[in-house]
Amino acid sequence: MPIYLLLPFSAAIVYALGSISIKRALSDGVVVGQSFHLSNVVLGLVFLPLFFLGLAKIDWAIVWKPMVMGTAFFVGHWLTFGAIRRGDVSLVTPLMGTKVVFVAIGVVVLSGVTPSGPLWIAAFLTTLGIFVMGLGDLKGGSRLAFTIGVTLASALVFGISDVLVATWAGGFGAMPFLAVGSGTVAVWSLVMWLCQGRPVFFPKGPGSGWAWAGAIFIAVQAMVMGIGLALFDDATGINVVYASRGLWVIALVVLFG
In this structure, are residues 189 and 41 in contact, taking their beta carbons and an 8 Å threshold? Predict the structure, then answer.
């Protein structure tokens, strides 16, 4: 196994911890908007130091590219929070693993590069396995339909975001690309917060610690994944490994209840 695949493997575990922490924060009274905006701002701050790595190589003429990627990530993140708010994390996270198929298709459409046969097989088998893992949570009803629909939409948008990182980051400057994109996520979140009438930003109460933990976990795993996508030309393979986050979530839910 290529050594760089340890990046998405570790990111998958950290993502599982983050999604469970956020769900616990919401259960303990944290408003979904607070957790969402906090996660986005922490994301921008965690990525900020990467801006100064390769600063001299930045092509400012195409600064719109990381901004487009960041906007896509913001939309995907917003959809994910909506799904977690309404559904069970042990269903949402496995369904998010369908992103691997969207990434494979996106690689073909946006870069013109066709993944190898084994990678296509791995992508579809991963998706099938993820669906089987989530079968136990399929309980019917409009709430289930909403959760599945929003989660799949989130997976699609995140898949596009991943392909944009893999395709565009090198031409702009890999590390600054990630920093500008993540800064865009934070800016969009602050704009939304202002449009919402500037509600209380920082979580309070028993769920505040879980909200901070979730925000940090999500930011760290996003940085690990971003570095992997930006530096290694294997968006599909990286996402096949990253899809194991669904398994990790179920394992952690079973272990800790």
Answer: yes
